[in-house]
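Page 37, continued from 36.
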């Protein structure tokens, strides 16, 4: 028999502990328990938990439990809106989000410190010499076009006046 823990069939062991298996499967698991320490330990642990749950007795409910419960519910509903808002904003509700935000900031800071040349706004970062020459050439072309435009502008104004 293959080990139920290694084949992800741990439910078979739980059924064995609950006595819900047929005689043939129970016999195979009994034989397997003699050789597999992990399955035997899981079965012992499971039995220990069930014994502890069987021995546990909850505290008895008092006679005025319902009355006190409804009084607390009524007091919460009667509280002003700002107190209810303050209760909802308590730190315990924000702990998971705060932890995630801090972890994200730490990762981002680590990345920025590890890759200083790739930050946006760093002068000369990621600009090659050919790109700089292309930008310079484009600016010169625009300046030349502007000069042509300003040289032809008075001629157009004179011709419109005539």
């Amino acid at each position: 028999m293959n080990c139920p823990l290694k084949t992800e069939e741990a439910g078979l062991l739980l059924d064995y502990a609950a006595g819900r298996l047929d005689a043939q499967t129970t016999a195979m698991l009994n034989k397997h328990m003699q050789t597999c320490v992990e399955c035997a330990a899981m079965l012992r642990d499971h039995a220990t938990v069930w014994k502890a749950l069987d021995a546990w007795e909850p505290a008895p409910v008092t006679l005025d439990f319902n009355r006190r419960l409804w009084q607390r519910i009524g007091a919460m509903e009667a509280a002003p809106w700002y107190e209810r808002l303050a209760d909802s904003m308590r730190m315990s509700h924000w702990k998971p989000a705060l932890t995630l935000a801090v972890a994200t900031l730490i990762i981002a800071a680590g990345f920025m410190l590890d890759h200083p040349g790739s930050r946006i706004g760093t002068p000369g970062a990621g600009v090659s010499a050919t790109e700089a020459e292309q930008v310079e050439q484009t600016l010169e072309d625009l300046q030349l076009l502007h000069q042509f435009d300003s040289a032809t502008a008075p001629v157009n104004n004179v011709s419109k006046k005539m």
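The mean pLDDT is 81. Flag for discussion at group meeting. The helical segments are 10-18, 23-35, 37-55, 65-78, 81-88, 91-114, 129-161.
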